Structure formats: C-alpha cells, structure tokens
Amino acid sequence: MLDKMGNMMGESLDMESLTKPLTASRPASDVKAHWRDIVDQANAVGEVIVTSYNRPEVVVVSIDRFTKLKQDASANDPLATLRAEFDRELAVLQQPDAARKMRRVFDASPPEVVKAANVYGRRKR
C-alpha cells in the first residue's frame, strides 16, 4: 500500500525528499495493472514518476498540473520579447520606401555607416 508520499517500497524518506514538491514514484510494471491508481495518485499529488529498473522513464501528470505548466511556459516564454522585436524590425522592412533606404545603407561608405550608427545609438528607444 502507498504511504502519504507515494512510496511503494516502504523506503525511509530523508529531509531532502520532504522539502521537494510532492512527487510519487511507481515502477513501470505497475502501469498496466494499476493505471487507475496511478491516475488517481497523479491527481492527488500532481505527478507520478514511472521508473524502470529504478531509473525514471516517464512522468504522468494531472491535467491541472499540465495546464499550469503550459500557462507558466507561455507566460515566461524567453522568445516572446525576441519575436516581438523581430516583428517590429520586419514591419520596418515592409514599408514602401524600405528598398530605397536599404540600397542607401548598402551603398554607404564605412565613415557614413559609422556616423549613422553613432546617430542611431544616441536615440532613445
């Protein structure tokens, strides 16, 4: 029978395991025979790690935990700012006179490029 921490083997729990979020562990051989119990356990503690030969193989998560993980990932997407900046830059390149401006940039001499970069660098964004 499982104890409160989902420990099937009757192993003693150390302080480190008590400070971690609740996670259950089950051997892979239990999955087919005890699927409903594993789902209930995932719903109770958020996730169940399925092991094979005492090595973690997969994690069964509750739908609530999965939804929260997806929301957190979307809210903390490190590429969101980069995408927004790229879209702003792309919008500039799609303006009607963008081709003419780009030709001027590529035809500029090195001193002209330095001067333009310095002017641009002094502008507030």
Task: Report on the architecture of this protein.
With 125 residues, this protein is α+β, with helices and mostly antiparallel strands. It has 2 domains: 15-68, YefM-like domain (YefM-like fold); 78-122, no CATH class. It has 7 helices and 3 strands.
List the helices and strands and how they pair.
Blueprint: H1 15-19, E1 24-27, H2 29-33, H3 35-45, E2 47-52, E3 55-61, H4 63-75, H5 79-93, H6 98-107, H7 110-122
Parallel strand pairs: 1-2
Antiparallel strand pairs: 2-3
Q: Give the CATH level 1 class of the largest domain.
A: Alpha Beta
Unreliable stretches covering 5 or more consecutive residues: 1-19
| CATH 4th-level superfamily of the largest domain | YefM-like domain
Query: How many beta strands in the DSSP annotation?
Result: 3
Total helical segments: 7
Q: What strand line-up does the widest sheet have? A: 1-2-3
Query: What is the H/E order?
Result: HEHHEEHHHH
Describe the sheet with the most strands. Answer: 3 strands, mixed
| Rg measurement, Å | 28 Å
Looking at the structure, the CATH topology of the largest domain is: YefM-like fold
Which percent range fits the helix content? 55-70%
Label the structural class. alpha+beta
How does the overall form come out from the CA principal axes?
rod-shaped
Mean pLDDT level = 81
Can you tell me the number of structural domains?
2
In percent, how much strand structure appears in the residues?
5-15%
Q: What is the distance, rounded to the nearest whole angstrom, between the alpha carbons of the first and last residues?
A: 62 Å
